[in-house]
Specification:
The structure is a single chain. This protein has 310 residues and is of the alpha/beta class. The chain has a single domain, classed as Indigoidine synthase fold (3-Layer(aba) Sandwich), CATH 3.40.1790. The chain has 13 helices and eleven strands. The chain binds pseudouridine-5'-monophosphate and manganese (II) ion.
């Protein structure tokens, strides 16, 4: 085990007896939602994983330790901002460890730590991707490179239309990352079920997805997968409202010269403000739904493993 890793006892026990475990990220808590809804959501998401018979492992860097599974106190400290955690992606983790710092792991950061801990399934809201205008800014999220390299499957509600969705899919295709629509043929666009962009593959059940993941990794094909789970129709938002908010947020972002790691948190916060409380409610609902699905896939994955005797 890596010397910087701290696996919570409950998670370690689950792994010992072959219970399914689902990793959860922390940037969504610190940079994706306001206090106190962020803590409430983190707890609801953990409860959703448990309700499926799996164990949640929320991941973060605390005082330089790579934490897998957080206590109530640790979750609260992260969520209320008192540790001022920074965004922790692949490039940031070494410095945080060296300086005993605090960081909230992004999709990329969470995948890295989950892999170290032997966790294969991870649930979140939306992944990072190729930003609009990337041909000028070169702004491509490190999440995509991590999906290319690290053996963890990410269940999400697609990607927000703050990104260039066709370019994001092209990038994932180049890198050999399977993108699987869960009961859909379209890439969901986070707040809405449709994007007009087709997904390359579709699955109808958690068992089918578990089989695909198992095949990929038994074949020795390194890297992750994206499982795109559309938001439920009752929580989806009208496309016109979202599109307008995104257009405004993108204009402001360019006008203010926001760059680098600040771009995504800036856009997320502005879109949330511009759409009011509705978008937060949708956001919470879709993360919970993804947690349920990830737990179901993790369960199937473990049961195939047991059947095969490994
Ligand atoms: N997209 C969302 N919500 C989020 C993020 C993205 O709809 O919370 C977060 C995730 O943690 C993701 C990160 O990994 O933003 C991507 O940031 P960047 O574009 O800087 O790589
Ligand atoms: Mn970026």
């Amino acid at each position: 085990m890596n010397r910087f890793l701290d696996i919570a006892e409950e998670v370690a026990n689950a792994q010992r007896v072959g219970m399914p475990v689902v990793a959860l990220e922390s940037t969504i808590i610190t940079h994706g939602m306001p206090w106190p809804q962020n803590l409430e959501t983190a707890l609801k998401v953990e409860a959703a994983v448990r309700s499926e018979g799996a164990i949640p492992a929320t991941i973060a860097v605390m005082y330089g330790r790579l934490k897998v599974g957080l206590s109530m106190d640790e979750l609260t400290l992260l969520a209320n901002g008192s540790l001022s955690p920074s965004k922790a992606s692949r490039r940031d983790i070494p410095l945080l460890v060296a300086r005993r710092g605090n960081g909230a792991t992004t999709v990329a950061g969470t995948m890295i730590v989950a892999r170290m801990a032997g966790i294969r399934l991870f649930a979140t809201g939306g992944i990072g991707g190729v930003h609009r205008g990337a041909e000028k800014t070169w702004d491509v999220s490190a999440d995509l490179e991590e999906l290319a390299a690290t053996d963890v499957a990410v269940v999400c509600a697609g990607a927000k239309a703050i990104l260039d969705l066709p370019k994001t899919l092209e990038y994932l295709e180049t890198k050999g990352v399977p993108v699987i629509g869960y009961q859909t043929s379209e890439l969901p666009a986070f707040y809405s079920r449709e994007s007009g962009v087709r997904v390359p593959m579709r699955a109808e059940s958690p068992a089918e997805i578990a089989e695909l993941l198992r095949a990929k990794w038994l074949l020795g094909l390194a890297g992750g997968a994206v499982i795109a789970n559309p938001i439920s129709p009752e929580h989806a938002m009208p496309k016109a409202i979202i599109d307008r908010a995104i257009a405004t947020a993108l204009e402001e972002c360019a006008a203010k010269g926001v760059q680098g790691a600040e771009v995504t948190p800036y856009l997320l916060a502005r879109v949330a403000e511009l759409t009011g409380g509705d978008s937060l409610e949708s956001n919470i609902a879709l993360v919970i739904s993804n947690a349920h699905l990830a737990a179901k896939i993790a369960k199937e994955f473990e049961s195939i493993r047991t059947q095969d005797g490994d």
